[in-house]
Input
Amino acid sequence: MKPALGLIETLGFVGVTEAADAATKAAAVELSAVEQIEGGIISIRILGDVGAVQAAVEAGVHAAQQVGTLVAHHVIPNPHEDLVHVFGLMKNTGETDMTDLESLPVYRLRQIARETPGVSIQGREISRANRAQLLSELRAAKSNQTDA
Output
């Protein structure tokens, strides 16, 4: 499964900060990148399930408009393979080598945690877990599998 890609661009730092904060609080999404573009435009990329990304972008757009200048926003529900490659979006390819976990984005670690038997956190706990927590849980589950 490819995640949806949400984009929000604002003029200035305050608007994009407010947009990012509102977007990540509105839904279980990952803020995957912040990029400063010429002329004071700053862009954020949001990844997650389509509905979550749509809700996050909507909340982010509303928040940005309250404190700054919104330049553009867009949601791509099913990005083309070229975008998956260029933006570093991961597809759910089944089993993941546990040694490569460090290089994965948080949204992918959450997907793997949901698919991995023996992970002690579930549901919203996974959605709220940070990178360190997810890595710890996945390593513990893997260790328990190899010990059994």
